Amino acid sequence: MTITYANGQTIKAALVVRIENMIRVVLAGSDDVTEFTCIGDAWVTEDCEAVQIEYGWPVRIHAQYTDEDYICPKDLAARLIHMLLNPEEEEESTAPVPSPSLASTAAHMIV
Q1: pTM, to two decimals
Q2: Over the Cα atoms of the chain, what is R_g?
Q3: Which in 8, 90, 96, 111 has the greatest CB count within 10 A?
Q4: Average pLDDT value for residue range 63-74
């Protein structure tokens, strides 16, 4: 992610945690954790300096998901349950386990 301060300075950061209206990041070149708070629609530092936060991934707000997005195909579920209950058995196929339909949306973060 990139943090842009009011004076135009930008710095890369790594997200440590995000909880509701607060994030903690480690800024590039620092060993300390920095905290930012969201007040209304604006992010601010601990000293109330406005910053812009740009995530390194697409952010989807109020995504519309259906039950279908969370349902695992029956054949995959049966195969995984069988593997779980019979760990000593070697799998007949070397084919990779197919991903459920949710995997395609898992890369998107919902805030």
Answers
A1: 0.51
A2: 21
A3: 111
A4: 80
Q: How far apart are CA 82 and CA 7, in angstroms?
A: 58
Q: What is the DSSP letter of 79?
A: H
101 has pLDDT over 50: no
- In which band, very low, low, confident or very high, does the pLDDT at 26 lie, cut at 50, 70 and 90? very high
More confident residue, 44 or 65: 44
CA distance 100 to 70: 8
Neighbour-count burial of 23, counting CB atoms closer than 10 A to its CB (0-12 exposed, 13-18 middle, 19+ buried):
buried
In 1-111, which residue ranges form alpha helices assigned H by DSSP? 74-85
Q: What's the gap between Cα 31 and its chain centre?
A: 22
Other beta carbons within 10 Å of 43: 19
Q: How far apart are CA 111 and CA 18, in angstroms?
A: 10
Tell me how far apart the alpha carbons of residues 97 and 57 are, in angstroms, rounded to a whole number.
26
